[in-house]
Amino acid sequence: MGGGLMSVVNSHAEALRPVVCKLSGKVCPELLEVERQSNRPPWGEELFEREFANRYSRIYGARLLGRIVGFLVVHVVMDEAHVVNFGILTELRGQGIGRVLLEEVLEDLRREAHKTVTLEVRAGNLPAINLYQSVGFAECGIRPAYYSDNNEDALTMRLDLTAPVSWRSTDDRDCASATKAA
């Protein structure tokens, strides 16, 4: 992907907005690239395939210029949701793509009458913590030595979806139109 995508993003920053949609297993190679850049230890293809087969799992993607540049995996059981994985290509972090993806997933969950969303985040990942807090998540606990690669603590966070919306609403889009446009 290299500097080409980033230079296009920089030159069209105002006009470009990622398209968010639910994904299928056909995009697994693209997800693996985002995952390798986003998480340690990274999930492998087998884990993603299990998520696509899991009836409680939803995998959302953010497409920009026809490419998957971010994803969010959420488990949904009854009226609760839990974010289990979230990643954005390194070169595109700080461009608002993660915010758009998170906001649209939360709005989708709200429309379906889910009541709460929970997640774990590395205690030292301040950009992610700030993003989550900015859309209404609140810290609700700590999981000591949660992450296996370095025994870093995880903050647990929770969002009440029945509370007034704290993020802007977004319009409906689909991946098919994003792919055709690119």
Strand content: 25-35%
What would the CATH topology be?
Answer: Aminopeptidase
The CA-CA distance between the termini, in Å, is: 15 Å
Mean pLDDT: 87
- CATH homologous superfamily identity: Gcn5-related N-acetyltransferase (GNAT)
Largest sheet: 7 strands, mixed
What's the count of strands?
Answer: 7
| CATH architecture title | 3-Layer(aba) Sandwich
Low-pLDDT residue intervals, each spanning 5 or more residues = 169-182
Q: Overall 3D geometry?
A: globular
Structural class: alpha+beta
Number of helices: 6
Q: Name the quaternary structure.
A: single chain
Radius of gyration: 16 Å
CATH class, named Alpha Beta
Order of adjacent strands in the largest pleated sheet: 1-2-3-4-5-7-6
Which H/E pattern describes the elements?
A: HEHHEEEHEHEEH
**Secondary structure: helix percent:** 25-40%
Q: Structurally, how many domains make up the residues? A: 1
What would you say this structure looks like, in words?
The chain has 182 residues and is α+β, with helices and mostly antiparallel strands. The protein has one domain: Aminopeptidase (3-Layer(aba) Sandwich). Helices cover 34% and strands 29% of the residues. It contains six helices and seven strands; from the N terminus they run H-E-H-H-E-E-E-H-E-H-E-E-H. The chain has helices at 2-11, 28-38, 45-53, 97-111, 126-134, 175-181; strands spanning 19-22, 57-64, 67-77, 80-88, 116-122, 138-143, 154-160. Strands 1-2-3-4-5-7-6 form a seven-stranded mixed beta sheet, with helices on both faces. Strand 2 and strand 3 (67-77) form a beta hairpin. The longest helix has 15 residues, at 97-111. The radius of gyration is 16 Å and the shape is globular. The two termini are 15 Å apart.
